[in-house]
Amino acid sequence: MFPAGPPSHSLLRLPLLQLLLLVVQAVGRGLGRASPAGGPLEDVVIERYHIPRACPREVQMGDFVRYHYNGTFEDGKKFDSSYDRNTLVAIVVGVGRLITGMDRGLMGMCVNERRRLIVPPHLGYGSIGLAGLIPPDATLYFDVVLLDVWNKEDTVQVSTLLRPPHCPRMV
């Protein structure tokens, strides 16, 4: 199978189950999330943990979206929540209205999908922070559920479910 025999790399000699366990442990420790030098995150980490069966449309640049979220720090302390305010976020994605990390984290999301976003400081509030709410150089964690996505280019489908016999109007 191999021209000069199998490679002698020690990981290739491990049984498949042990190799899989090593990979799971490495991911659990956060390896692969940091920069190559082992420093801070370079980009948003997206963990998709509820993906709907049907996804006719994903979020794209310029879409109007509505979503709920909880924002926490690494220690789990909540700094903001649309649920607590009882107000969902309704905004256009990719036009500079959100922190860059949230813009990137929403891209490609489906309605009813849930994601956990880990936003490094340079894609959040940076070295300045947000007075009284976000300290400087804070990594932010968001639990997001997308409720709606719309774009003016989308077609609107309307159908009449029930029309009383005496009503002449049609939709």
Describe the structure.
- With 171 residues, this protein is an alpha+beta fold.
- The chain has a domain at 57-152: Chitinase A, domain 3 (Roll), CATH 3.10.50.
- 14% of the residues lie in helices and 23% in strands.
- Strands 1, 2, 3, 4, 5 and 6 form a six-stranded antiparallel beta sheet that branches.
- PPIases accelerate the folding of proteins during protein synthesis.
- This is peptidylprolyl isomerase.
Helix content: 10-25%
From the alpha-carbon coordinates, what is the Rg to the nearest angstrom?
A: 22 Å
- How many H/I helical runs? 3
Largest sheet: 6 strands, antiparallel
Mean pLDDT: 81
List segments where confidence is low: pLDDT < 50 over at least 5 consecutive residues.
1-14, 19-38
CATH fold assignment of the domain at 57-152: Chitinase A, domain 3
- Secondary structure class reads alpha+beta
User: So what's the CATH class of the domain at 57-152?
Assistant: Alpha Beta
Strand residues, percent:
15-25%
Could you give the order of the helices and strands?
Answer: HEEEHEHEE
Instruction: Report the strand count.
Output: 6
Global outline:
elongated
Index terms:
171 residues, isomerase, alpha+beta, peptidylprolyl isomerase, 3 helices, disordered N terminus, 23% strand, six-stranded antiparallel β-sheet, PPIase_FKBP_dom, rotamase, Chitinase A, domain 3, elongated
SSE blueprint:
Blueprint: H1 16-28, E1 45-50, E2 64-72, E3 78-81, H2 82-85, E4 89-92, H3 100-106, E5 114-119, E6 140-150
